[in-house]
Structure formats: C-alpha cells, structure tokens
Write a structure and sequence with these properties.
By secondary structure, the protein is mainly α. It has four helices and no strands.
Length: 103
C-alpha cells in the first residue's frame, strides 16, 4: 500500500489530475481497474513532456493561439456551416420509405 501511495504522489507531482488517479484499495482489491488504466494512460501522456522519458498513448495537445482580424471575423459570419445542414431547396414531398400507412 505504501508503494502505491508513493506512486500516486509522484504521478500528481508530474501533473496528472485528481480525476485521473485512483485509490489504493481499487488496485489492491481489483475493484476498479478501469481507473488504474486511465491513470497509467494519463501518466503516459505526461511523460511525452519530460526529456529522455518515452511516453505512450496520444501526445497532449499544445496551445495554438489564433488571432483573427475584425475583417476575417465579419467574413465568417456570412457562411452557413455544413453542421447546421443544408437542403438546397429540397423538400420531402414524394418520399416514401417502406409501406404506406393504411388507416
């Protein structure tokens, strides 16, 4: 139990959040191995930032601050995103999927 607590303290010092760590009893009793696995993957992500330590799993994203001019922001307001959908004048009239409903 002491080794596990030491591991958890070191993991927190490396920057792994409290939400991604586990409790010692979860590992010893094997009740929540999913939390243990999540903690190991979080540690692997943090190891990418330490020189000489190989990390595993996906690398954490780096901040990429973007700055737009006022003209660029105004130009983007007139564009309808495709996530909102576009029917290009199409209607549902005449569509028939499967059998018609008899009443």
């Amino acid at each position: 139990m002491g080794n596990i607590e030491g591991f958890l303290n070191t993991v927190k010092k490396l920057g792994v959040s409290d939400q991604e760590t586990f409790q010692t009893t979860e590992l010893v009793e094997g009740t929540n191995l999913y939390a243990v696995t999540c903690c190991l993957y979080a540690l692997g992500r943090k190891c990418h930032n330490i020189d000489g330590v190989p990390g595993f799993g996906p690398k954490e994203a780096e901040v990429q601050k973007r700055e737009f001019t006022e003209e660029q922001l105004k130009a983007g307001q007139g564009i309808i995103g495709l996530q909102m959908g576009s029917n290009k004048g199409a209607t549902q009239s005449g569509q028939n999927f499967g059998l018609s409903r008899h009443m």
